[in-house]
Automatic annotation (TrEMBL):
InterPro entries in alphabetical order: Galactose-bd-like_sf (IPR008979), NADH-UbQ_OxRdtase-assoc_prot30 (IPR013857), NDUFAF1 (IPR039131)
SUPFAM superfamilies named in the record: Galactose-binding domain-like (SSF49785)
Organism: Akanthomyces muscarius
Gene Ontology BP, a term: NADH dehydrogenase complex assembly
Protein name (record): NADH:ubiquinone oxidoreductase intermediate-associated protein 30 domain-containing protein
Ranges for domain NADH:ubiquinone oxidoreductase intermediate-associated protein: 28-191
Amino acid sequence: MPSHQSAQRRVTVPLDIHYLYGGNQTWDSALWTTSDDRVRGGSSQSYLSVSDADKTHASFNGHLDTSTLGGAGFASQHSRGELTLDLSSYEGILIIVAGQHKPDGKRYVLTLKDELLSPRMDGRETSSISWEAEFAAEQPGEIKLPWKVFKATYRGRDKPDAKPLDRGNIKRLGLMMRSFFDEQDGDFALDLSAIATYKDVSTPGRHTDTNAEDDGINLKAHRSTRQKKKAQWKTLLCGLI
């Protein structure tokens, strides 16, 4: 699988960190629940596993199947119940990838919700807008996801007219493995030390992330390179035909 660029940075500046999971908060798989594409007739499966006795690490793992739904598919875990998180004073989400195993380099998505709708009449969950940030786990260490890289989506599709994310009223946090329209599938595993919020405290009064713009450029550059490679293959195949 090719290496993916992402909104990923080594953290090298002093940070004010508030742990949500891991760190000074132990991991607990009972605080998470499954939401896979099986609710739509798919076959993907995901788990949030905590295996070490001290509960300092967790693994988001499973199998992404894209054959059942014709190239589509997702496997995800999200916080159980309704959270009441005020993250308005922080600059984004910090993911700390553990070093027990070599990361698989696949593209993951961290999701946030500031609204949870009432269940449908049949008991199934009602879809609502999610705010998503893509990242690739290519090596152990910290991954910064500033607020600017979170994009509003509805059922996996961009929702550009959505109102801004209410960072003072976060009700759900999740992790997702997505096919990205049949670009990836199969087994996956993301070993985590922690998920936290962060704020740069190197400069007093600073409340913006200077890496946000560069992070967005890197994501666009990766997508542009992927599109060029697809175009080159199409040209080659047409020549052969």
